[in-house]
Amino acid sequence: MGEASRIAGSMSYGRLRKAAARLRALVRAYDIFLLPLALIIGVIAGSTVTLVSEIAQLAHVLIYGIPIDVRLSANASVNPLAAAIAPASGGLILGVMEWSRRRWKIAHAVDPIEANALRGGHLSIRDSVVVTTQTLISNGAGASVGLEAGYTQIGAGAASLIGRRLNLRRSDLRLMVGCGAAGAISAAFGAPLTGAFYAFELILGVYSIASAAPILASSISAALIANWLGGAPYSLETSHLAAVAGEQYPSLIALGLITGLLGIAIIRASTLLDRLFNRKWLPIWCKPVVGGLCIGAMAMITPQVLGAGHGAMVLDLNRDMATTAILTVVVLKLGACLISLASGFRGGLFFASLFVGCLIGKLYAVLLHLTSIDPSLDATTSALTGMACLGVAIVGGPLTMSFLVLEMTRNLEVSAGVLTACFVTSVAVRGIFGHSFSTWRLHLRGETVRSANDVGWLRNLTVERMMRTDVALIADTATVAECLAEFAAGAGQARIIVGPDNVYRGIILAGELNVAAVDIEAHGTPVLAYAKYADTFLLPAMNVKMAMKAFDQAEADMLAVVENATSRKVIGFLNESYAGRRYVEELSRATNSLVT
Fold first, then answer.
1. Which of 228, 155, 207 is nearest to 185 (CA)?
2. What integer pLDDT is reported at residue 105 of this predicted model?
3. Domains in the chain, please, with CATH?
4. Angle ∠(591,595,596) on CA atoms, nearest 5
5. What residues have CB less than 8 Å from 405, skipping those under 6 apart?
6. How far is Cα 564 from Cα 562, in angstroms, rounded to an integer?
7. DSSP 3-state assignment of 534?
8. Sign of the CA dihedral running 542, 543, 547, 549
9. Band of pLDDT at residue 306, cut at 50, 70 and 90
10. pTM of this prediction?
11. Each residue of 508-520: pLDDT tens digit?
């Protein structure tokens, strides 16, 4: 009986493997099968977003004693003891986790933007679960961060896992990661278009006809499943808005420019706080504890600094507020957000930037009314414009933020004004600074990524992969006559001159050697006298873009490749023409994958 069961189980497993193989073949062969896959990813994203949101709300209820149907940041006050203990306790847990990660030498978790830009969509599901858990701990304890980072991480991580199990091509795997992120944002805000354009602008880095259908399918299915399970956690609604007149556009454009400059200042301030918390005398495990104590102190002044700020934004959007009250909340919320991230809490600035931008827009309208510059500007319209523009400045994606306002208000005229201001913000931030918050943090780690466009292929195309190893070497002690005797005149492009242990000394070009061959008196001259590019060489780890830059600077057609800059031992050479051809081929292949 046991043997029969084992045989039956083995046969079932074999059939399952064959079915999986057939499914992989179908998905790889026919793009139409990406649509049902995107729908499944959307369902997974919508379900996980709802689950994580409910857990975070339950944590707020248990820790702070708030009603189950009230957001943490919308409370008039919080228990001072809970505010003092909860963020610091959550910080201690995260501090121990970070200390353990460094002790065990575990690499940093990769986010969806980095995964799509540098790794062809490869995202670890284990790391994604860890990041989502850390985000949940941070937000649940009351740190001033949003859950959207956890939402997109787990959605994109699950999509990457499914794509890798189906052995998808690089371009399709990146698309699936975009579907996971789109579904997460769509489910969080109940806004399918916002989720879709979040994927296009921030995760894929480009819009194409081929990617539109899967992205929208995932986004719509995620919004539907989240709504069915209990509603989008970040859904926003506004009262009826007045139409935006043409004369109000200059005021909205000025607001877009102002918020763009503020966004740059916020990103710069985050760097200063990072340095402050990275002092050597402050233990790693202690940093989030200190940050938690700071957040708790601010929460005693106003609970609006706690969590993502969704409840506070809904509360503040349509009510009258004094100028000093707005300024107080803006300063404290920004301080709490930056301290949270700098000290080691996990989370995103997506919703926090929306909340702060909303208050900045509200303050802008109040000041315009006081100065009589534009008394007709509606305060809610100004708040929505500030919300979208600061989101563009910090997160990126002018169309994403504009569609968020459109899906919130269902008002096309207001959305047109917001879109105009968002593009002003985007142009200002790109021209002056060139980074969003996400890409800036990658820049601080030494990356050169400015968007999610796929540049991983560029890094993979290294000098080591392109170089030739059949090197024509000549000793630096040799004379021109000896060089001519060893190498037939006209054979090869150049000879690489080396010292003892093949240490690089320069290159003697075939043209120079042929000219010297005509002059009998030059035959006794050392070849080192004709050496060129003695201080210019390539390293194996250089990518093709760096190699092409070296060719241009040296004005050389060929350069030597050395083992490292210290030993300078010659291991090969590379021709500019070949490197250029490979660069064009790979660029063309990457471009075709985006538009087909």
1. 155
2. 86
3. 27-229 (1.10.3080.10), 246-453 (1.10.3080.10), 457-595 (3.10.580.10)
4. 110
5. 384, 385, 387, 388, 414, 415, 418
6. 6
7. coil
8. negative
9. very high
10. 0.81
11. 877 677 666 666 6
